[in-house]
User: Fold these one by one.
Assistant:
Number 1:
Amino acid sequence: MNAIAVVTSGGDAPGMNAALRAVVRACSYHKIRCKGVRLGYQGLITNDIVELGPRSVSNIINRGGTILKTARSSDFKTKEGRQKAFENIQKNNIDGLVVIGGDGSFTGAMTLEKEFGIKTIGVPGTIDNDIFGTDSTIGYDTALNTAMDAIDKIRDTATSHNRLFFIEVMGRDAGFIALNSGIASGAQDILIPEKKDDIETLFSSIERGEKAGKLSNIIVVAEGEELGGVYDLAKFTKMKYPKFDVRVTVLGHIQRGGDPTCADRVLGSRLGIAAVEGLLNGKSAVMAGIRSNKVVYTSFEDAIQKQNVINKELIRIVEILAR
Ligand code: ADP
């Protein structure tokens, strides 16, 4: 291989810069050229491609977001768009592509590989941790800590005013952030898409808390929870318990930003190198991940289609802890 290109695609996640830096420096170490594609797959289509050397990625390991920027490219979902991308890949003498992103980005990479034979390798970058083939995705640990810090702050005001808070955290399809940040911040209950909740179970949990002498309460709710969302939950709870002072906070995009944690910087660094070395060893259409502290490669098909399952033990302990 003479040149590898790297792209950050889909939703941004803290630690993507650490992964990008590792890709660039692994290329330098192995004496191959590295090119950065700006604005996700759109940059492949518009030929927005820059040469990257070890100094291009100085002082970014500690920064959230992605210096290459990212975008959602609808053009890349079309055959014509991918044809243009392929032509630019050829024009720039690119022999392999590292895609740092989520399962949408991997679907795009897999399609490019199938249609044009481009060697592609994925690095899981998403705060939701919903990708099969790695114990943790880049950005997840940072998002967890951001959510936990925010919930801690809300708890201060909840306690001072005897309030019941419904706090929505990110996770449209997966409850990893809700479950773990909820346990870490002492939530009374946690509602996630993987656990089929009903409103009566929630009410009995709230009542249990009240009987145990709790004057304030925190309920953490994943975006994708199926009881109707935080605002409806708050409304129904207020109707049932008019005496409660019920409030809602949606944490939103603060969970996507901020300086990556140590764990995310190390994860991004390891996976960036694993991606380059995977390509050099002839791997393609796979995602680099870490399982039980070892680098493993999972086919794009499995990474996209299989589920990263919630640890049921964590669901069980929520009730034990909420006394
Ligand atoms: P994520 O990678 O975080 O899951 P998206 O689902 O938005 O984010 O996907 C990122 C990009 O990957 C899209 O904007 C598009 O360019 C590309 N992509 C997603 N799905 C496909 C697909 N089915 N075919 C080709 N490209 C796709």
Number 2:
Amino acid sequence: MTERKRVVSGMRTTGKLHLGHYHGVLTNWIKLQHDYDCYFFAADWHALTSEYQDPAIVKESTRDIFIDWLSVGIDPEKATLFIQSEIKEHAELHLLLSMITPLPWLLRNPTYKDSQAEGQGGDNETYGFLGYPVLQAADIIIYKANLVPIGVDQLPHVELTREITRRFNHLYGDTFPVPEPILTELSKVSGLDGRKMSKSYNNAILLSDDEATLKKKVGSMVTDVQRARRNDPGDPEKCNLFPLHPLYSKAEEVDEICAACPRAEIGCVDCKKILLKNLVAGLAPVHEKQHYYRDNHKLLDEIIAAGNDRARSITRKTMLEVRKAVKLS
Ligand code: TRP
Ligand code: SF4
């Protein structure tokens, strides 16, 4: 049997997860865990690059994110789940990579350039923010990853990882495979206001929202903006809410809405009622598991500790090789 390819990906711990995460990143992770040797981690150090003034949110989100992962079906028996800051070797490798990473590579990174251009400078004017992709490179190659599932926004970071990896191998001898990105299909679910679902836009439906909150949020969702009156025909293709239906409603209901909406035979209020009912039912098993893990601190701690141990056993081995390669052993 050939060894399974290794997959590494991380998520910044800057708040609770929402449906955009679920129907984008997480469904992808759930699939990958069956076929690959997966390492998924809570990137709490990376979260600090933006949240350093309020680190409490990082700690809180780390636990919440684990609970959400487990509740949607990420399986700790299949994938190794861990916390970045618990694996100190990431920091050591980050430091070594920082020695060989030319500054211009970081200065031309789009994330950095955009933040400079937006003049949001201030908070982002740190050494850590500039070096963010170097830490990300360490996260990835310390596991000798082959594949990195990411959204398009992260592509320049993985490209940089590849360049840094080649440079390391060139300087110190072949040590790391050069990892490849796998692009995660963009989630079709957008936020309540029609923009990308995001914590910072305050337009997200959280995986942990209760029924009353879901009701309020679905009620406030923008639909087809062309459809001003109840008698105007609508177009599901142009409706911000519609993409949730195929994810949560029965096929017959979806077909009915697709037929009735353009003929103004269903109003958005009723359409939202159908969605709400199905969303509540669809998230019920997730909420049940969230409660279970929230009430079982010890179990959650054990799962995290086991994942951390598994991750560490690899990073320790890698760092022995790395120290030797850079003549520091
Ligand atoms: N930068 C990634 C994001 O914001 C998170 C991340 C950190 C990551 N380290 C990683 C993703 C390593 C993939 C691999 O989404
Ligand atoms: Fe969207 Fe439904 Fe209203 Fe049609 S009826 S515009 S699909 S919310």
